[in-house]
Amino acid sequence: MLAEQVQQALGIFIHASTVRRVLPKLGVKWKRARPTLQIPDAKKDRKMRAIERALLEASEEKPVFYVDEVDIDLNPRIGACWSRKGRQPTVPTPGQNQKRYLAGALHSRTGKVVWVEWPKKNSEIFVRLMAELRKRYRRARKITLILDNYVIHKSAMTKCFLSRHPKFKLLFQPVYHPWVNRIERLWKKLHDTVTNYSQIWCMT
User: Where in the chain is the domain with CATH 3.30.420.10?
Assistant: First the structure.
């Protein structure tokens, strides 16, 4: 489409492959757009200040973690890959897909990850993660979790656990601001290098 626009505007014919070679040299990349809210989060500034303050005050006694959940599929995610012309690669799959879920907590200072596995992405997986954090960081006086607004983070089971263990403090990131949560980068690496078949060179 861009090649056609150049031809219409300037009268110069450029092949699409030429456009693909030239654009990276001009600093233009092919990447997915980031979704944003049409109506911004009214509490965004207050939420961000609370997160920044917690990160600034983080210590051994008051650790801060980025928390999120991720889906793991038994069947591989199939994307584009290198292959010989005229040969479409095939990917053996185990048949009926099965899902597992991980809940992880990324330490804001050390980068250490604590995680738990569960067959469902429900309140129990989140409570199990907090229980694991409580066990591993017994000496902490306060454990702060930075996380999104997913329903399991605010459920009755979660509130019950928090009432029994007041050392936990939840800081919710602004709505539709996943880049605030650094563990999202870990999940992307997980999908890109482990569960996504597009990273494999298909020559058979």
Answer: 40-199
What is the rounded distance in angstroms from the CA atom of residue 139 to the CA atom of residue 141?
6
Distance in angstroms (rounded) separating the CA atoms of residues 157 and 170: 14
Question: What's the CATH code, domain 40-199?
Answer: 3.30.420.10
* Alpha-carbon distance values, 122 to 2, 75, 101, 155, 182 (Å): 45, 22, 9, 9, 22
Residues forming a β-bridge with 106 = 66, 113
* Structure-token pair, residue 131: 């229980």
CB burial class (10 A; 0-12, 13-18, 19+) of residue 17? Answer: exposed
Residues 6+ apart with CB under 8 A from 149: 172, 173, 175
Greater confidence (142 vs 39) lies with 142
Q: How far apart are CA 117 and CA 124, in angstroms?
A: 10
pLDDT the model gives residue 8: 87
Quick check: 199 pLDDT over 50? no
Q: pLDDT tens digit string along 47-58?
A: 999 999 999 999
Are 72 and 101 in contact by the 8 Å Cβ rule? The answer is: yes
Tell me the pairing of strands 64-73 and 99-107.
antiparallel
Q: What SS3 class is residue 159? A: helix
Q: Which residue type is seen at 132?
A: E
Question: Quick one: the chain helix, strand, coil %, rounded to 5?
Answer: 40, 20, 45
